Amino acid sequence: MLLSKQTYLILMLLLISVISFIAIHAAPNSFLAAGELNPNMTPQTIAQLQAIYGLDQPLWKQYIDWIINLLTLNFGVSFVSGAEVSSEILKRLPITLTINIISMLVAFSLSVYLGIKAALYFQHRSDYVIRQLSLLSFAMPSFYLALLLILLFSIELHWLPIAGLHSIEPKEGIAYYTDMAWHLILPIGVMIFGSLGSMIIYVRSLTLEILKSDYYFFARTRGISSSRLLRYYIVPNLLPPIVTLLGLSLPGLIGGSVILESIFGIEGTR
Fold first, then answer.
1. The domain containing residue 58 runs over which residues?
2. Cβ-contact 135, 197 below 8 angstroms
3. How many structural domains comprise the chain?
């Protein structure tokens, strides 16, 4: 059974890779579309670039080379900078990881707190406000929210920087990291807000199921305090499914950070 599952997984990954490869080559714009429109690019130069990137090979040969390079983490040379793509990723990876880890931890903590509070105050004002907040977070596109916050806090109020990681004037020591944190307030805030919606609803739903369970009912009849009920009966039963949900939402969080890095002009792995 294990072998069949592994075989199925490999076949699915190969099918996904084939579909992705065909979709890229079926796109109307070619890899060298910008170069073909450049009057300074001669046909010989374009042909040389195609040979460098292997685009003059048959499609089956390009696919095999692409899979081999992907498995060996050989991403080739950047078309923009001319440097190795792997080195460019390693150079920009720390800031992307920092943004995502901070956003994930804060969003996780806030979702657990707000979801539990909404369930404990079921059908009260707190529950209503938290549900509306989660629905707003779920429905609001992160890029649209980012633009609104830039207009409000950066352009109108001049409280926060518009883009980038550092100010124009270089800083040293603690001021360097303080300046970086000041520039990351908006992008991290947008990522946190965008991650709250589904997690709050999920935590609230799980907490309501726990509150209806027999073991929670008997614990209450024994006169256990609310803080001990929360610590020993609610939170331990919430953590396993929430951690699973957090792992499943991580790819979407990282994908969203790529868009936000472009909007805020952050030199991450975008």
1. 2-71
2. yes
3. 2
